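User: Hey, quick favor. My workstation is busy. Could you predict this chain's structure for me?
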Amino acid sequence: MPTVAAKRRSRPLAAPTREVILDTAERLFAARGVEGVAVRDLAREMGITASSLYNHFRSKQALYEAVLERGLGPILQTVTAAWRDGLRPDRVHATFEALVGHHARHPHLARLLQRALLEESGTVQALVGRWVGALYHQGIAVVARAARAAGWEANEVPHLGVALFGMIFAYFTNAGALRRLAGWRGDPLSERSLAVERRFLEKATIRLLGPRPRGVPTRR
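Assistant: No problem, here it is.
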């Protein structure tokens, strides 16, 4: 007569949901890159067969594209709507509350994007380029609206865009390593740590893009 443990082992695993598949793919793609992850690796991680995974996504490329869409789509929407009515503190707070919250829910996203930008595959570059290009252009449009009042020159706006992009993504890319190497204590993704990060981003952005004090001339 089979034991209780044997009965448990014989039960089929529950089929993973689309979100579980995307979470797993996001984590593995972030750790190994697209070229370093095979469909069988993804399937094995979830305890299913490769053919079962193909029932959800027709190819690894389609799965990767879905990971990018889920991860970067909300960021693009947030950036597009940011600060349309000026660089008010409440609007800056709302923007970074949304961005930090999204990264906290997808802690591997920043590293996935960092790795994706280094991918040499033409197919991957095309997929990533479409999203990053949209993020860049929308971000530059947002930054440019505030940059002139803050005293920045037009040719400095792209540098501001890159700096803000780096600030937002760098924490989630590097926090784990800094905790190990620099002796950070606590969980970088705890509510307390994320609140500190959000406040930092708000203050840094307002100091970079807030209106310059009166009497400070704009360089030509």
